[in-house]
Amino acid sequence: MKIICIGRNYAAHIAELQNERPEEPVIFIKPDSSVLPKQQDFYIPDFSNDIHYEVEVLVKIKKVGKHISEEFASTYYDEIGLGIDFTARDLQSKLKEKGLPWEKAKGFDGAAVIGDWLPKTLFEDVNDLNFKLLKNSEIVQQGNTNLMLWKIDEIIAYVSTFFMLKKGDIVFTGTPAGVGKVSANDYLSGHLENKELFTVKIK
Ligand code: ZN
User: Fold this and answer.
1) Distance 7 CA to ligand 1 centre (A)
2) How many angstroms does the Cα of residue 52 sit away from the middle of ligand 1?
3) Each residue of 106-129: pLDDT tens digit?
4) Tell me, what CATH number does 155's domain have?
5) Residues within 5 Å of ion ligand 1 by Cβ?
6) Under 8 Å CB-to-CB from 97, ≥6 apart: which residues?
7) pLDDT in tens, 64-100
8) In angstroms, what is the span from residue 65 Cα to ligand 1's centroid?
9) Which residues pair with 52 in a beta bridge?
10) Which domain holds residue 161?
């Protein structure tokens, strides 16, 4: 199983990190070892003093596909979820400065939180989903998938021209504005529409 992540997919988040607006989706991969086991606490790693949460809508791929056209992309997923793309922002900034890959900053153990899955049939339109992240009961990130620069089906089509998609692969579709640092004892919870799909305790 691989995790394919889209970077810079919400204009307001691009602005907050003072990144350039990309002409094509920014893609990176997290290894399967980065998945935080369910119900396990997230331990801030020693190599970073600036771990950021990034709440993102997730899509689970249900069958193998390559060069998928946008028109048929929706037949490749039945489940929608929510997760966190934990990022060692200090490490990432250094790597970005040098033009190096981000893997260490994005693919470390525990860097992928994957919440519960919901059938997409529950929703009228996957391009109009509200989601939010709460930190210690306060809303810190809030978004709607209608604000994505590249919509879910466009992402699947684009990604599949480079990587064969396989059953069980997960796509992280990018984070809205409001990313920020976690500290020990923080408590995060992620909500898609009105359902809580994950909680994480920071240690
Ligand atoms: Zn992200």
Assistant:
1) 5
2) 10
3) 999 999 999 999 999 999 999 999
4) 3.90.850.10
5) 54, 85, 175
6) none
7) 999 999 999 999 999 999 999 999 999 999 999 999 9
8) 23
9) 87, 181
10) 3-201
